[in-house]
Amino acid sequence: MITKEPPTVDNLSIQELVRKARNAQTKYESFKQEQVDAIVRDIGKFVFDNAEKLARMAVDETNMGSVEDKILKNKGKARVIWNNLKDKKSRGVIGEDAEASLMLVAKPMGVVAAVTPVTNPIVTPMCNGMFALKTGNAVIFAPHPKAQKCAEHLVLEFMKIVKSHGGPDGLVQVVTEGSVEKTQELMQSVDVVVATGGDAMVKSAYSSGKPSYGVGAGNVPVIMDRDIDLKDAVEKIVAGASFDHGIICSHEQFIFAPAENYDETVQLFINTGKVWFTDDEKQIQKLREVVFQDGHLNKDAVGVSASEVGKMAGINVPESARLILLPADGSGTEDILAKEKLCPVIAIVSYAVFDDAVAMAKANLLVEGAGHSAVLHSNNDNHIQKAGLELPISRLVINQASSLSAGGSLTNGFAPTTTLGCGSWGGNSISENLDYKHLMNVSRIGKIIPDKTVPTDEEIWA
User: Fold this and answer.
1) What is the DSSP secondary-structure string of 5-64?
2) pLDDT tens, 344-387?
3) Catalytic residue among 127, 150, 249, 422, which?
4) Architecture of domain 14-215+431-445
5) What angle do CA 401, 405, 409 make, to 5 degrees?
6) Are 199 and 217 in contact (CB under 8 A)?
7) 150 is a catalytic site residue
8) What kind of architecture, by CATH, is found in domain 220-406?
């Protein structure tokens, strides 16, 4: 009996990948809106329909995150991204500005390099692939080495979809036997780069000489105001901070609770049955030393369960716990727990007045995470505006679970994405969520504005 070998991706050099992508993109550029949308829709639907298999594949390969949460993530991101893309024009004439007498024409950028992280080995390639194809581009993925199998599997499946709609070979590809040098060569050889990964990789993208979109570190502070339903806020914080074992860059990291409600708030966290809390200084210090080694995030703690974090510290945290809650000694530089923790550990301190909470949240962000996101649970419009004005952030999430909503949801206005720009604070070129529009050029056809009255010099300088 002859066993058929499973299909594999081509092991090509970077220049061969780019050459093949350019040939494919030249053919794909002629595809109409409905043809492009059919491909993009089916890519999202593939991830949605195969959410469980892909979630297990991701956890098995990376040893990070929760299968159950990744299933929800695969379904949720596929759903919300396609829902946002399906009615958008991205090919040919996409709109007119009658008042300015402009016609807008969308054109592709060419070949997109998408550097994808180990923390999101399924939804980030899906998302950036959908954006690239929506706008008439070819895409080449450069995955983290610990997520190579996931990327190769996705490329094979995505290309089946492309071919089923008459698309060209080489439209979606992946770098094999990846290295820093290969990724750098790729970024220097394409037309635009989307870099979702560590700080060094993002900086490399911006120094590639090509237009680039990167992300910054997350370190989301959470302010609990005095006029809220504490139980509801606690439940949302737990849902966000514990999701996928705290691996999401937009997940809640540090809570500021009103002083008079501090004890009640801690008890509400414990009452969820999902939170393990300690105020034992020795245990807190052990957990600090596990999460941070020599002042840096311990990579072995990233994306593991709360009980596993406890085990690493020699502390018995029950399997039922989804989140570890620790009192901090202060904000900013006063406690290392004020830094980003890509694991299900969250810190809490009390504040006297709202201005203090904002100041402490800002201190955390200036240590790490400036430009990313913050959360405010409040019904006070003045406080909401104050936080929005004073915090160095690109998005302020109000009364929502941040990790489930900062990247866009069906119930807010943030663009659905897996790539969250952090503006100049985070060394990024955009201070919004990456969207399909960032991967297309727009030509503006300008005519004279009919009946436009030209102002006199006196009117201009009045």
Assistant:
1) PPP------HHHHHHHHHHHHHHHTT--HHHHHHHHHHHHHHHHHTHHHHHHHHHHHH--
2) 999 999 999 999 999 999 999 999 999 999 999 999 999 999 99
3) 249
4) 3-Layer(aba) Sandwich (3.40)
5) 135
6) yes
7) no
8) 3-Layer(aba) Sandwich (3.40)
